[in-house]
C-alpha cells in the first residue's frame, strides 16, 4: 500500500549538512522530511568513515543553539592554537585564539560523532520525519509544489526540495545542473595516532611539496592525521605493513610529541574541487557538497556546508512565520545571493593555497615563507585570520553568531 506524506520542506540526504539543516528547520517550527539512502546502522559503524571535521566556532554556536552540543562535547578535541610551517623552513605562522579572542578556534569531532547526534535528536523533533534507508526514484517540480516518489511506494509533497546528497548529488543531476570539477592528483590519507606527550590543543599544518600534513587535536593524547600525498604514491603508503607505515608516518610527524602509535584503521580519499553552475532552481536548493566541494587544506568543507544549511533554514523559517510560500523564488534568490560569494571565495582561497604550497620552486618557496613570517608579526592581520578561521567573518545566520563562551 502506498503512503502519501505532506511537508513544508523535503531534504534529500541526511548526512552532516542535511541533518543540520533539518534540525534547524524543525527547531524553527518548519515541517521537514529527510530521506536518506543509507541505513542508519551502517552510518554509525566505525569502519564507515574515518574522517573528522574541524568545527569552527560559528558552527559550534549553531550546535549549542539547537541543543546538539551537549551530545557531542565529551568527544570533542579543542583547537586553541594553530601553527603553520612550510617544509623545513624555520619561519612559521602561529595563532593563539585564546590570546586574540578569549575562546577556542573550534573543535575536532569524528564525523561519526556528529552523525550519531543527528540520528538521535532529529527523529525526536516534533516537526521532523526521518526516512531511511529510502531511495528517491522520481522528483517532479512545478510552479506550485514538489512531488517525490520513493522506492517503497511513498509519495511526498512539499513546497521545497533541498539537495544535501553529496558530491554525486542525485537531486542536482535530476535538475540538469552541471558542475565544474578538477582533480588535484592528491589523496588524503587519514588515521588517528596516540602520542607520548600532550598536543596542548595545538593544531599543526605542515606544508610539503606533496601537499599539507595536518595534525589535529582530539581528546586526550590522540590526534587526527590528514596526510596528503600524490595519488600515485598514496596507495603504496596505505598498503604498507604496520611497521613500515609507522616509519613513514613518524618521518613526517616528527618527534616533538614523543613516541607515536597508530590507533585504528587507515583510510584514503581522493582530493578534488567541484562546484555546481548554480545552487538553486525551481523549488530546489543545493547545500554543502551537493553545491560545492573543496580541498581540506583549510578544514572548512563542513563549515561552509553548515553555513549553507543555517542560512537557508533562517530564510525559510522567517518566510513561514510570515505565512508565505517557503519554496517561492524570493527565498531561493536570497539564499543564492547570501551564500554565493562566501562559498566561491573559500573555493578560490583553498585552491590558491594548495597550488601555492604544493611545490618546491625556490623563489615561490622563499616568498611564501617570508609571507608567513610577516603575517605572524602583524597583530591586526592575525586577528582577522583568526576570526575567519572561527567562521565569524561575514554575514552569519543568527544561530551561528557569537554569544557567551560555552
What does this structure look like?
The chain is α/β, with parallel strands linked by helices and 406 residues long. It has a domain at 4-76 and 111-180 and 273-360: FAD/NAD(P)-binding domain, CATH 3.50.50. 34% of the residues lie in helices and 30% in strands. The chain has helices at 16-27, 40-43, 57-65, 97-100, 111-121, 170-174, 234-238, 242-253, 301-321, 329-357, 362-376, 379-389; strands at 4-6, 9-12, 32-35, 52-56, 77-79, 81-86, 92-96, 106-110, 128-131, 136-141, 146-150, 155-158, 160-163, 179-195, 202-208, 211-217, 222-230, 260-276, 280-281, 284-286, 292-293. An 8-stranded mixed beta sheet has the order 7-6-15-16-17-14-18-21. A 6-stranded mixed beta sheet has the order 9-3-2-13-20-19. Strand 11 and strand 12 (155-158) form a beta hairpin. The chain is globular. The model has no long low-confidence stretch (mean pLDDT 92).
Which short descriptors sum up this protein?
406 residues, alpha/beta, FAD/NAD(P)-binding domain, eight-stranded mixed sheet, six-stranded mixed sheet, 21 strands, 34% helix
E-strand count = 21
What gross morphology would you assign?
Answer: globular
Number of distinct helices: 12
CATH architecture of one domain: 3-Layer(bba) Sandwich
Q: What's the pLDDT, averaged over the residues?
A: 92
